[in-house]
Write a structure and sequence with these properties.
The complex is a heterodimer of chains A (156) and B (106). Chain A is α+β, with helices and mostly antiparallel strands and 156 residues long. Chain A has helices at residues 3-11, 16-23, 29-32, 39-43, 47-54; strands at 60-61, 65-68, 72-73, 79-85, 90-97, 104-109, 117-122, 128-136, 139-149. Chain A has 2 domains: 3-32, no CATH class; 39-149, Immunoglobulin-like. The radius of gyration of chain A is 17 Å and the shape is globular. A 4-stranded antiparallel β-sheet of chain B has the order 4-3-6-7, with no helix packed on it. A 3-stranded antiparallel β-sheet of chain B has the order 1-2-5, with no helix packed on it. The chains are: A alpha+beta (156), B mainly beta (106). At the A-B interface, helix 2, strand 4, strand 6 and strand 7 of A face strand 3, strand 4, strand 5 and strand 6 of B.
Chain lengths: 156, 106
């Protein structure tokens, strides 16, 4: 068995199933494990701590990151957010919700050929600034938008 | 076996536009059941989308993605009739892979 495959199969836990998908030829190993789940980043409780866990040493505010999200979310359990980055060389887009129990909501990697655009729906515990953090050319950029929440959606 | 994803992939100009609705409870681990016990966290951690064997999007998610996750993105290089394959893996190791054929038009 080639050493790469052996290492993957030993990983187990939440990556075990993905390892099987790799072994089954469904997903190429370099694609499946290109980005492991960053526990430190998902456990962080502040924007600064998430950035640090993602390997950033600071972030510059940018007007070239565009949010499409409501000013007021009627239901904090389902807040639609779309982010488009106009920064050249965008490689990843992360969504951070400042007042949530855990700040980092999602981290998307954008390969060449894919639009630097993502849309999803998130839970917000309360009114909060939502940050889009973009990695372009190895540097971090961000934009923030406050979204008011009338009914909190984290279930706590 | 988790419920299937609903995937819509269609041409929008020269790009493939993909909208996905995944079936998943996305439990944060903070909610309590009627007896007061916390419901354990159960959420999708990794998402990978491929087309012609190449990754066109990958993502790591936390517990604050909404129940029955929605995902919307666009990529170049796909043509009608080709397939987009999406895989998710959650924190319990459960996984689901579904594919959709790119529709023409746009």
């Amino acid at each position: 068995m080639n050493p790469t495959r052996r290492k993957f199969l030993r990983t187990g836990g939440s990556l075990g199933a993905l390892a099987l998908a790799v072994a089954g030829g469904l997903v190429r190993p370099e694609d499946a494990f290109a980005q492991q789940w960053n526990k430190a980043a998902f456990d962080a409780k502040s924007v600064a701590d998430v950035l640090k866990a993602l390997g950033g040493s600071g972030s510059t505010e940018s007007k070239d990151i565009v949010f499409d999200a409501p000013d007021i979310a009627e239901n904090g359990a389902v807040v639609p957010i779309s982010i488009e980055s106009k920064i050249p060389g965008t490689r990843s887009i992360a969504i951070l919700i400042e007042k949530n129990p855990f700040t980092l909501s999602a981290d998307f990697q954008i390969p060449a050929g894919t639009d630097p655009f993502v849309g999803t729906r998130v839970k917000m515990a309360e009114t909060s600034k939502v940050y889009a953090v973009v990695n372009a050319g190895g540097k971090y950029f961000h934009a923030a938008k406050e979204i008011k929440v009338t009914i909190g959606g984290c279930g706590g | 076996m988790p419920d299937p994803m609903r995937i819509r992939a269609s041409m929008a100009g020269d790009k493939v536009e993909v909208k996905v609705l995944m079936a998943h409870d996305e439990e944060t681990g903070q909610r309590k059941d009627p007896t007061g016990k916390p419901v354990p966290a159960h959420f999708i951690q990794n998402v990978t989308v491929t087309h012609a064997g190449k990754t066109v999007l990958s993502a790591q998610w936390g517990t604050s993605i909404s129940r029955n996750p929605f995902l919307h993105f666009r990529f170049k290089g796909g043509k009608p009739g080709e397939k987009v394959v999406i895989t998710w893996v959650d924190n319990k190791g459960e996984t689901r892979t579904d594919e959709a054929t790119i529709a023409g038009g746009g």
